């Protein structure tokens, strides 16, 4: 079974603009995979469809074998999505937010895992701090933990390092590598080939709603000039 299967995904928005024009690819379990593309390539549209947040116009997506539209609950239980934007209720503290999110997934006792995540993300000291008193970078860390409370087999990070300080970048990548070694599948979207190159075994490249490259990082880097030009032009 694949961690993710995308079959002929097409998305046309209400204004008639087609952001995905028939995208197909698979990600196998245990991969560390990058979805690369310039602004407007369609990455967020695709991620939202994977998370069931918007409906494809046609085509299908499976998360760990579950169709995201027909079996949305099972698909959602198997996916952890770290979104680009911060969305929080600011009146709770960090531990409370993570406990509430655990409850949402039906997990009652999650403190060991919550403590482990706080440790990996450098948040242990902030466990009892109210969210409204945290810096933007700290809130981002909480968002990562929030996406992972149910230990999802598939983890997707949407541009995780945009506007993020070096220290968080390092702890985030180290944590993702640990999770990947434990068998979790990791997919990240990024504008940066360098970031994909450093961590990912395979890269898919979107350009104007189409898949224009899908290969191992090694092969793509051999055609690096070509890839860079594609990214600039898209
Ligand atoms: P970025 O790196 O800037 O986040 P992206 O690759 O994630 O870009 P998307 O956000 O998926 O790209 O956008 C793809 C295209 O779809 C863009 O041209 C965008 O303007 C368009 N688009 C996105 N959302 C909508 C919407 N709700 N209605 C109409 N067009 C939209």
UniProtKB/TrEMBL annotation:
Q: Which domain of life is it from?
A: Bacteria
Gene Ontology molecular functions: ATP binding; ATP hydrolysis activity
Report domain ABC transporter positions.
Answer: 4-233
Q: Does the keyword Transport apply?
A: yes
Parts forming coiled coils: none
| Swiss-Prot/TrEMBL keywords | ATP-binding, Cell membrane, Membrane, Nucleotide-binding, Transport
* Keyword Transcription regulation on entry: no
Q: Name the chain's protein.
A: ABC transporter domain-containing protein
Specify the species.
Simonsiella muelleri ATCC 29453
Q: Which residues of the parent protein does this chain contain?
A: 1 to 234 of 303
């Amino acid at each position: 079974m694949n961690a993710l299967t995308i079959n002929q995904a097409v998305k046309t928005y209400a204004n008639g603009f087609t952001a995905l024009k028939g995208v197909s690819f698979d990600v196998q379990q245990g991969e560390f995979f990058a979805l690369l593309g310039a602004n407007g390539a369609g990455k967020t549209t695709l991620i939202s469809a994977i998370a069931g947040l918007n409906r494809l116009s046609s085509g299908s997506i499976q998360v760990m074998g579950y169709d995201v539209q027909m079996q949305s609950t099972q698909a959602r239980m198997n996916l952890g999505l770290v979104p680009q934007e911060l969305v929080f209720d600011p009146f709770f503290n960090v531990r409370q937010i993570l406990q509430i999110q655990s409850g949402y997934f039906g997990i009652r006792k999650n403190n060991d895992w919550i403590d482990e995540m706080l440790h990996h993300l450098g948040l242990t000291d902030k466990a009892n701090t109210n969210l409204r008193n945290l810096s933007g970078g700290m809130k981002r860390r909480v968002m990562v933990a929030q996406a992972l409370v149910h230990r999802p087999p598939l983890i997707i990070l949407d541009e995780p390092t945009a506007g993020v300080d070096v220290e968080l970048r390092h702890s985030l990548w180290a944590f993702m590598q640990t999770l990947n070694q434990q068998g979790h599948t990791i997919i990240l979207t990024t504008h940066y080939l360098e970031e994909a190159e450093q961590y990912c075994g395979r890269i898919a490249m979107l350009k104007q709603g189409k898949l224009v490259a899908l290969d191992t990082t090694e092969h793509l880097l051999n055609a690096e000039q070509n890839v860079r030009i594609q990214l600039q032009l898209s």
